[in-house]
Specification:
Layout lengths: L23 E5 H18 L2 E2 L1 E2 L9 H6 L4 E4 L2 H11 L2 E5 L8 H7 L2 E4 L2 H16 L5 E5 L38 E3 L8 H15 L8 E3 L13 H15 L2 E4 L3 H4 L3 E13 L1 E6 L3 H4 L2 H4 L18 E2 L5 E2 L3 E6 L8 E7 L8 E5 L19 E5 L5 E5 L3 H8 L1
Helix pairs in contact: 3-4, 4-5, 6-7
């Protein structure tokens, strides 16, 4: 199958940004439904189970929509995320963390349906509690995360298979003698990659750990499968999953985060001031460091609707890459006192004025989950744009949230 029947989305031109209180993270329901429709069809055609990774997308007010499309599980990386999965996602709870503490583990054990250990040391430490839970009738799946030492992630910060990684057990350290009670393997080495990368990754995984798959009931392919990005080879993904399942007779799990929130919404901001120091700079009511940390960590340059790139040989380029007439350049910065709270220079068709909306595109995945209250700056609202054009203001943050975080 190569074609999917996907629902339409709300045109950006139809959104009245002035009607949305600033600042705000705005999820577009129509775009989320489009992604969910595709993901659910991949799940059905491939036979894999696709669950949502909270580290990338944890907007729980949208979880009813996920359940509507057959997404019935979530993967958590902490006790708090596991509680959120049980209370709000209301499906299978998959848990993996680089290490579990003695304090948190008993509660995590109560919540988890799938529990993945990062090392055999952790497995040995907590195995008695797992065995006791099973003896009491719990159906609890246990896995070991492995590191096949193959990765195609360009940014070292996001490469779990890099040299000396603490994430997962390498073949050299793998303990076949400790597999009693383990019924699955987990790997994660992708980051917004295509299915061609997954196919090559599986070659490395099977080369290192294929001999143990006959003892396993399931394999978790981790996240990083950006199947909702334009140009992603979905037929290949379906084929790769089907072939792997046929070769090894195992249940396959995928746990993307970005694929759910990819291109599903925006961060709406407003101009608070325009200052001049050789160049014009616009100060916004959002913060790069507090609200868009990946811009500094990755780093990457987000798209601003209606704005283009800085001057280049007398020309400017719009956001679709075409050359346009010279406009009005501004350095775009945030409202904290951090000197580096700056995204960069953009070209706008008209001079910016105080109160103008500046809208950052694709700001749902890996944004809200990483925000902070640095400097005490106002945290953006969380809202949902409905298909009929109605805007639902879901959450507003104030002093109490800021105070509670510090205590």
């Amino acid at each position: 199958m190569t074609d999917f029947d996907l629902p339409p989305v709300t045109p950006v031109e139809a959104v009245n940004w002035a009607d949305i209180p600033s600042p705000a993270f705005v999820l577009d329901e129509s775009r989320l439904r489009r992604n969910l429709s595709l993901i659910s069809q991949v799940q059905r055609e491939s036979g894999a189970q696709i669950i949502v990774a909270f580290k990338g997308f944890a907007m729980w007010s949208a979880f009813p929509l996920l359940r509507e499309y057959g997404i019935t599980g979530a993967t958590a990386s902490s006790l708090n995320e596991a509680i959120l999965a049980r209370q709000e996602m209301q499906g299978e709870v998959h848990v993996y963390a680089p290490a579990y503490s003695d304090e948190d583990f008993p509660r995590i054990l109560e919540l988890a349906d799938h529990l993945v250990f990062n090392s055999f040391g952790q497995w040995e430490r907590f195995r008695p509690q797992v065995q006791a839970a099973r003896e009491q009738g719990r159906v609890l799946h246990v896995g070991i995360r492995v590191n096949h030492e193959y990765g195609e992630v360009e940014t070292d910060l996001y490469n779990p298979a890099g040299p000396f990684s603490r994430l997962g057990v390498t073949r050299r350290e793998f303990r076949e003698d400790l597999l009693d009670g383990v019924d699955g393997l987990h790997f994660h080495s992708l980051c917004e990659n295509d299915s061609t990368t997954l196919e090559r990754t599986l070659v490395a995984f099977e080369e290192k750990f294929g001999e143990f798959l006959g003892r396993m009931k399931w394999v978790n392919f981790g996240g990083g499968h950006l199947m909702t990005r334009a140009g992603y080879d979905i037929p290949r993904l379906i084929r790769v999953i089907r072939d792997f399942k046929a070769r090894h007779d195992v249940h396959v799990i995928l746990e993307p985060g970005s694929a759910f929130g990819w291109q599903t919404g925006w961060l709406v901001s407003s101009v608070l001031d325009v200052v001049h120091n050789v160049k014009d700079a616009a100060v916004l009511d959002v913060s790069v460091s507090a609200h868009m940390p990946d811009v500094l960590e990755m780093p990457y340059r987000p798209r601003i609707l209606g704005a283009g790139d800085p001057p280049e040989q007398g020309q400017h380029r719009s956001d679709d890459g075409t050359a346009v007439a010279a406009g009005h350049p501004y350095i775009i910065g945030g409202t904290t006192c951090l000197a580096g709270d700056v995204i960069g220079e953009y070209i706008f068709p008209q001079p910016l004025q105080v109160g103008d909306r500046v809208v950052f595109d694709d700001m749902i995945h890996y944004t809200m989950v990483k925000t902070t209250f640095f400097n005490g700056v106002k945290h953006p609202d969380i809202g949902i744009l409905r298909p009929d054009g109605r805007y639902d203001r879901i959450k507003t943050f104030g002093y109490e949230e800021f105070k509670a975080k510090l205590s």
